[in-house]
């Protein structure tokens, strides 16, 4: 069932490993078949080196396993919450990449202070609010998705395709699982660049005209970066 979706998710998870965004069993990638309402996701606690297509777990939008012998990622409720909140997306990625986690643990958004950031993320990459004791105890992973979605009440999730969960780490997404992985790679790199920049000049500000120029060169109807 949905062998191509499972293969896509296997490749996305292996790409996280190959991009050095994950170590051990940290992190996960998923993709959704919107027509069927089925999500394919990494199994919980399984080594990337041991994963095969048959390891990938299929769940419905309520989190019920519909195919697979392994337990799905413990972050599955977060992925499902993001798919419900952001109907434009087709893939979700979570990592514990070093620099992004550092910003999350510092409880700070990653500021848009350079053109590299602005090429992919139109705004600062937000950091979620503190979760309440009730949210942590009664549905931690589901509420993790909800606090992410709160950050995008006035933002387009495809224009800034990622967020930091306070004290935890980054989630990214995209139209496909592969795009979500690409956004995770970029998020980690701009997190590193911002950390280095603030070490040199903590009061730096970005030119808003440059943000608009660099974002619009790659996105929207007037984009002209790359080939047709």
Polypeptide structure, described:
The chain is α+β, with helices and mostly antiparallel strands and 228 residues long. It has helices spanning 3-18, 76-85, 98-105, 115-118, 133-150, 177-200, 208-218, and strands spanning 28-33, 38-41, 57-60, 65-67, 91-94, 162-165, 169-174. A seven-stranded antiparallel sheet has the order 4-3-2-1-5-7-6, with helices on both faces. Helix 2 (76-85) crosses helix 5 (133-150) and helix 3 (98-105) packs across helix 6 (177-200).
What's the CATH architecture? 3-Layer(aba) Sandwich
Put simply, the count of helices is 7
For this structure, what is the CATH class?
Alpha Beta
What is the 3D shape? Answer: globular
Order of helices and strands: HEEEEHEHHHEEHH
Overall average pLDDT = 96
In angstroms, what separates the terminal alpha carbons?
35 Å
Our Rg estimate from Cα atoms comes to 17 Å
- Helicity level: 25-40%
CATH superfamily: Class II aldolase/adducin N-terminal domain
How much of the sequence lies in strands comes to 5-15%
Main structural class: alpha+beta
The CATH topology turns out to be: L-fuculose-1-phosphate Aldolase
| Tally of discrete structural domains | 1
How would you characterize the largest beta sheet? 7 strands, antiparallel
- Reading side by side through the largest sheet, how are the strands ordered? 4-3-2-1-5-7-6
Number of strands: 7
Low-confidence segments, given as residue ranges, are none
């Amino acid at each position: 069932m949905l062998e191509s979706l499972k293969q896509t998710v296997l490749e996305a998870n292996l790409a996280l490993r190959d991009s050095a965004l994950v170590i051990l069993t940290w992190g996960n990638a998923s993709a959704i078949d919107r027509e069927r309402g089925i999500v394919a996701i990494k199994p919980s606690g399984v080594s990337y080196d041991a994963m095969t297509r048959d390891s990938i777990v299929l769940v419905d939008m309520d989190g019920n396993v519909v195919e697979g012998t392994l337990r799905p990622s413990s972050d599955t409720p977060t992925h499902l919450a993001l798919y419900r909140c952001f109907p434009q997306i087709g893939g979700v990625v979570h990592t514990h990449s070093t620099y992004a986690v550092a910003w999350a643990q510092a409880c700070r958004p990653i500021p848009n202070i350079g053109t590299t950031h602005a090429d992919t993320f139109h705004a600062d990459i937000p950091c979620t609010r503190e979760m309440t004791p009730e949210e942590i105890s009664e549905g931690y992973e589901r509420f993790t998705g909800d606090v992410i979605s709160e950050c995008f009440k006035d933002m387009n999730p495809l224009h800034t395709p990622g967020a930091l969960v306070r004290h935890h780490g980054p989630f990214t997404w995209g139209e496909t699982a592969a795009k979500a992985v690409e956004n995770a790679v970029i998020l980690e790199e701009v997190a590193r660049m911002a950390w280095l920049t603030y070490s040199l000049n903590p009061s730096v500000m970005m030119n808003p005209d440059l943000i608009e120029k660099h974002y619009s060169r790659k996105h929207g109807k007037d984009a002209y970066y790359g080939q047709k």
